[in-house]
Amino acid sequence: MDIDLQGERKKLKEAARFWAGDRAPSNFGFNATTVSLLELAGAPAEVIQSVEAKASPEPDEAVCYVWEENWQSFQFYLMVQSQWVIVTGLTNSVRVKLDYAGIGSAMWMDGIHRRDRKALFSDLRLIESAVLEYDGEKKR
Question: What residues does each domain of the chain span?
Answer without folding.
Answer: 5-21+66-139, 24-61
